[in-house]
Amino acid sequence: MKHEELQLRDAGAMPSDEVLREVLGESYVAYVRFQEGLTDFEIEQEWQWYTPYKAWFARGQYRWTTPRGTKKEKTIFWVCFFKGYFNVAVWFKEKNRMELLKAEVDEETKQKIRATETMGQVPTFPIQFDVHSAEQLADIYTLIKWKKELEA
Question: How many domains does the chain have?
C-alpha cells in the first residue's frame, strides 16, 4: 500500500457519500454493493481516523452476545481508499492459514493466502483486495464469513 496515495486525509471531516463518490469514481458502485452485502453478515462499518497513515479507514465490526450474556466484538476487515478504488484487508491469525486454504475462493486468492507474509507479535497476515468492480466481491465475502467463524 502506498501511503502517500491514500485519500480521505481531512481529519476534521468524516467521509460522506459525496466525498466517497468523488474519490472512488466508477468503483463507487462496487463500494455501495460491498456495503449492502455486509448486512447479510451482521457487520457494521464504522469510520476511524488512523493516525499512523493520517487518513480515514473503515473498520468492519461484528458484535454478538455469548450464551452467558457477555457482549463481544471482533474486527473483521479494514477498508482504505485510493483514487478510483478501495482496498479491503481481512486479517487472519497464522494458525488459521492452512484451514483458510480450504475456502471456496479462486486460485488468485488462494495464492495470496499462501504468499502473504506474517507480521506482528501475534502472528497475523492480511489478505488484501484492490476493488475496482463488484465482480471482485465474492471472494471478499467468503473470507469475511470465514473470519467471523474462525476464532470467534
Answer: 1
